[in-house]
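ok here's the first one, seq then struct tokens
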Amino acid sequence: MNCCTPENTDKNTNFNNQLIIPRQKNSIFNNMVSIPAGSFIMGTNSNIGFPEDGEGPEKNIFLKDFNIDIYSVTNSEFEKFVTETKYITEAEQYGWSFVFYKLLSKINLSKIEYKVTSTPWWCIVKNAYWRRPEGTGSNIKNRENHP
């Protein structure tokens, strides 16, 4: 079993690589491909998933076509995207984000007020977002090429 997702036990799953259509080169979209609209089965009927998170039961989902990066987006690339599009992340809107506890300094760890009971390794950190990944006092300096 994988962390956080149920395994696909259907060994007959067949993916058609021809469905991925490379996009034209253009600014922040340089490394993106277009994924055509289509249906897929999401979730599981096993007791592994959390229905509250949409992990079950199995359901047929239809997605409109969309674009996705071929590679993980780096902080530098994301900064360019934010500058060009004025995008505001949910963490910036909410004023907090989940941060893995081992990434936090002792000072920031001591300021944690809330944790999710079922996943205590994820801490709710005020002012954590992509430019300040561990909250106040952190930054992405020397991490521009990190995903």
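and now the second one, same deal
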Amino acid sequence: MQKDFHYCAIATLARATGFSPEDAQVIAYASQFADDSQDDAPLTMTGDQEFTPQATAHFGFASWAEETCRQVYVPFHFLPPQATPSGRAQFITRPDSALAQELVALAASHPDRLDRLVGLGLALHTYADTWAHQGFCGWTDPLNKVAGMFELDENGVPGQALSGLWLGTVGHIQARSNPDLPYLRWRYLAGQGGEEVRRDNQAEFLTAARRIHELLRRASGAPGRPWREIAGQVAGLIAVDSEDEEERCGAWQHSFASSLEGEWGYDSSAWRRQAIERDDSLDANWGEDSPTAPEPVHVWRGDPAKLPWAAFHRVARRQRAWVQERVPG
């Protein structure tokens, strides 16, 4: 899934289930940030303190490393359907799995309000991906081989061939972004055996939205709007046939403008800017007392317990540990 679901749909569903605009924004931002948080280099903070961000995403050649699979893909994007899987085949992601439901329930029960909202957003990212990433596992494995991809029309008739990527077998890399495009109906030949798989992303994503609506309604404790009132709008937005992610996001904003009052829009660096800044005072004597630039030191711009960026990395660390305890790699 991409930003139109992880951010726009989640914000819309959170508002529809009774969350305030501010809380819906926190949940949706955390959901999307799971695809953007790549930095895990420790930061030196004032007072000789250290803070280590948690990478929940990776791109480029680092994304093929086994450690990336263990630390990023399995805990956040390709959750196995059950605890203690035996063999790679049991790591294959399945939609709406019991383990994914348990993960969301755990996040929704956290006693701290900010950690609960942020953790719910992160867990819902993982939960939503069980639909988009079904049939693939988070490891480099021949199970993830893909061939013969074709777009299907609404009658299931193959049409245009879809290009793939034949280098590497981690996750759905060979299928490129096809599993994540909400409007796409397609087919492919899976694994070494070449079994035909037909996927209707529109139907899968709509089911994911309905289930997330149920879980958010339970988490909010508010009556909210019943699914039947918004199902038609949501289905129409999922079906928007555009490769342009921003165009699809714009359709969500336009359709649900009345409920998305307040701050709207996603900037992947916004939470970090709100949370920390570099302490430039240490640079004042550089060149006089030291031939090399000092290591950067950062200052918190508030109480870390109340900053969403810090909360995201706290809950990411907890989610990873929780998954790894149940799904040893």
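notes on #2: The chain has one domain: 3-136+208-326. Residues 3-136+208-326 form one domain.
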